[in-house]
Write a structure and sequence with these properties.
It is built from six helices and nine strands; from the N terminus they run βααβββαβαββαββα. By secondary structure, it is of the alpha/beta class. It folds into two domains: 150 residues, Alpha/beta knot, CATH 3.40.1280.10; 55 residues, Trp Operon Repressor, Chain A (Orthogonal Bundle). The strands form three sheets. It has a five-stranded parallel beta sheet with strand order 2-1-6-5-7, sandwiched between helices. A two-stranded antiparallel sheet has the order 3-4. Strands 8-9 form a two-stranded antiparallel ribbon. Helix 1 runs parallel beside helix 5. It binds S-adenosylmethionine.
Length: 223
């Protein structure tokens, strides 16, 4: 799986994706992440990437011609890449969307900054995604969230023993609770069943807990 990221701040994306599980997936070449500095496509001597908004108002707007030049270059090097714009106005990102993106072989993520993009950038992409109902200063953190959540669904990224099948959002459920040592902490004990060694009972307990927690915390997930 290859991710291209068009951004004004490649180092931000690189520092967010260079560690732990994702860093290892990149190291073992299951995942490739290539950043493309939007500034390289800027216009004129000053490599201009943004301009003031028509109609007035605060902040700068990323230029459609600059973003198009960057995307055209990425597309010519990555034929068939699926282009995604990160924007608070996009469709709310979810585990379902992550699974759908995991079926792609090549994804290009476009990070906005400042006031956002010229509206006509929307015509250049295949999808628009928001990672939640809040406003970030730039698309880099949103991009890292997408890359991480999609990558962990790719076979081999989590290692052969770990699967995503029991994780939260699978089958409309939040995951069951986990415990480790110490067995007792400030009066709170590890549930007896987890010490029993009875795998059938443990599985039953975990399923019940997942149902209970989901009903209490996220009733919207079920049904
Ligand atoms: N003026 C825009 C608005 O009100 O919709 C917000 C622009 S925001 C300060 C700059 C950039 O950060 C956006 O263009 C987008 O790429 C990214 N961004 C901010 N919040 C985001 C979110 N919730 N999901 C995805 N990207 C986001």
């Amino acid at each position: 799986m290859k991710f291209n990221v068009i951004t004004l701040f490649p180092e931000t994306v690189e520092c967010l994706t260079n560690y732990s599980i994702l860093g290892r997936a990149v190291g073992s070449k299951i995942v490739e992440i290539q950043t493309h500095n939007l500034r390289d496509f800027g216009l004129g001597k000053r490599k201009q990437v943004d301009d003031t908004p028509y109609g007035g108002g605060a902040g700068m707007v990323l230029k459609v011609d600059v973003l198009n030049a960057a995307l055209e270059k990425v597309r010519s090097d990555n034929p068939g890449t699926y282009a995604v714009l990160l924007t608070p106005k996009g469709k709310k990102y979810s585990q379902k969307a992550a699974k759908s993106l995991a079926n792609q072989r090549n994804i290009t993520l476009i990070c906005g900054h400042y006031e956002g993009f010229d509206e006509r950038v929307r015509d250049l992409v295949d999808a628009e995604l928001s990672i939640g109902d809040y406003v970030l200063s730039g698309g880099e953190i949103a991009t890292a969230a997408v890359i991480d959540s999609v990558s962990r669904l790719i076979p081999g990224v989590l290692g052969k023993d770990k699967s995503t099948e029991e994780e939260s959002f699978e089958g409309g459920l939040l995951e069951y609770p986990h415990y480790t040592n110490p067995r007792e902490y400030k009066g709170k004990e590890v549930p007896e069943v987890l010490l029993s060694g009875n795998h059938r009972e443990i599985e039953k307990w975990r399923k019940g807990q997942a149902e209970k927690i989901t009903k209490k915390k996220r009733p919207d997930l079920k049904g």
